[in-house]
Design goal:
- By secondary structure, this protein is of the alpha+beta class.
- The chain has a single domain, classed as Arc Repressor Mutant, subunit A.
- Helices cover about 40% and strands about 20% of the residues.
- The chain is built from three helices and four strands.
- A two-stranded parallel ribbon has the order 1-2. Strands 3-4 form a two-stranded antiparallel ribbon.
- A hairpin with a 4-residue loop joins strand 3 (about 65) and strand 4 (about 70).
- The longest helix is centred in the middle third of the chain and has 12 residues, at about 25-35.
- It is globular, with a radius of gyration of 12 Å.
- It comes from Aliivibrio fischeri (strain ATCC 700601 / ES114).
- This is DUF2492 family protein.
């Protein structure tokens, strides 16, 4: 059974990073920490790939893309 990880884990990785992370670096960091056989979910989405999760979080402005990389937008995060 695949490990199912909440999107907040990815957001927290970005929050804990003191600077924006390029998308490829973030993807590598997540894969090295959790492996490649994982799926992700959010409060409203289930069974997402990492790419789908990042695209979803970007579309909801929970992650912001800058020239330097991706950064979390804590003001757009739900807190539960």
């Amino acid at each position: 059974m695949k490990q199912d990880i909440h999107g907040h884990v990815v957001l927290n990785i970005l929050i804990d990073s003191k600077e924006p992370l390029p998308r490829a670096q973030l993807e590598e960091k997540i894969e090295s920490e959790f492996g490649s056989e994982v799926c992700f979910h959010t409060c409203s989405q289930q069974d997402l790939t990492l790419a789908e999760l990042l695209d979803f979080l970007l579309s909801k402005k929970k992650i912001v893309a800058t020239e330097e990389g991706l950064t979390a937008n804590p003001e757009r995060m739900c807190h539960h």
